[in-house]
Amino acid sequence: MGTDAMQSLLSTYQKIFGSTDGKRPLAVRAPGRTELAGNHTDHEGGNVIAAAVDRYIEGVFVPSDDGVMHVLSEGYGLVEVACDELEAREEERGTTASLVRGMAAQFANRDVVPSGFSAVLRSDVLGGSGLSSSAAFELELGQAMNALWADGAIEPAELAMMAQRAEREWFGKPCGLMDQAAVALGGVQHMDFFDSTKLKAEGIDFDFGAAGYAVCIVAVGADHSANIDDYAAVPGEMQAVARELGAEVLSQVSEQDVIAALPQLRSSLGDRAALRALHYYREERLVARRVAALKAGDVDAFLALTRLSGASSAMYLQNVSVGGTSDQPSMLAIALAEELLEDRGVVRVHGGGFGGTIQAFVRKEAVNGFAAGMDAVFGEGACGVYGIDHEGAKAWWM
């Protein structure tokens, strides 16, 4: 991030909030993230590969003395939350205010005293697209509050867990930890979520560009944030299967036990829940093999396994299309991408699914033609080429 971007935000801050009154501004940057492997496995105690990407929420934060957090995101309205009113509010579910309140509450719960600030934020992390704009926003706030209130003492892994709690308990989305961890840590990370009390992550040194491929993410013109209920049904059904077998999440149950219980599960929960459970075990195996492929520098093996994973998400997890509607932009995008790519790359549903984006690994020489073909259907600029951010969310004094 350049100095010019922060100076521009500071100028906007001064137009809206006035002088900084001699207080030193804090600059904060949080990247979006892309899921490379592990589609809907994190919330079941499984494994994923995820990476921070070079699209950011950037912000300027200035301390204030009024005991209120004022947050203005360009293109959105001003959100104001009192520092002494941090309990979750049912009427705020799904709103920006809930995340501001929820993140501040995480610090208060650690005996860190919240204090007022005013902030102006700007984002090129496409909202509702599967790039985890919500996690980027949470870690933007988290690193700001960490610097303003805790002298930066809280480590990124802990900030990620705080952000997950804010999203689950204040915002109302039953997310796993992958999004927040990827944004907090930066780079390409293999994460194991079997122990829900701590984050186990291992950096993987792999360069897709050096291997001859670009990571492309295509926005298909649908906002998956409108489908929170569809998203929530995935972990809901997976965990219902686990409960039928006396556990909380699928990582605590063997695939053999699930298969043996299929007649019971079909009767009590229906076929879709059973299919989603079977996807989990299939995807876990595919993640492990893709970790090995990346560590070995074998991009061809990684891509072949990614193709299998994409098929599992579409057929068994069923998070590509939203039921009850003829609009299927993600499935259409996947079909078009496969026609355009042929043997020059692979494509899969991206992130939580249900609209938003698809992901393609494309031979570098084919990127321009692929992007033109996708843009012709889904709009100019729909296909973006993404690099890896290696720093994660960070804050520094201007």
String of helices and strands: HEEEEHEHHHEEEHHHHHHEEHEE
Indicate the CATH architecture of the largest domain: 2-Layer Sandwich
**Average pLDDT over all residues:** 93
> How many structural domains are formed by the residues?
2
- Helix content percent band: 40-55%
Query: Which descriptor suits the 3D outline?
Result: globular
Continuous helix count: 12
Sheet-strand content, in percent, reads 15-25%
Termini separation comes to 13 Å
**Structural class, from helix and strand content?**
alpha+beta
Rg result: 21 Å
User: Got a strand count?
Assistant: 12
Low-pLDDT stretches are: none
Largest sheet entry:
8 strands, mixed
State the CATH class of the largest domain: Alpha Beta
CATH topology of the largest domain: Ribosomal Protein S5, domain 2
What would you say about this model in short?
The protein has 398 residues and is α+β, with helices and mostly antiparallel strands.
Care to describe what's here?
It is built from 12 helices and 12 strands. The chain is globular. The longest helix is centred in the C-terminal third of the chain and has 25 residues, at 271-295. It has 2 domains: 3-206 and 389-397, Ribosomal Protein S5, domain 2, CATH 3.30.230; 213-386, Alpha-Beta Plaits, CATH 3.30.70. The protein is α+β, with helices and mostly antiparallel strands.
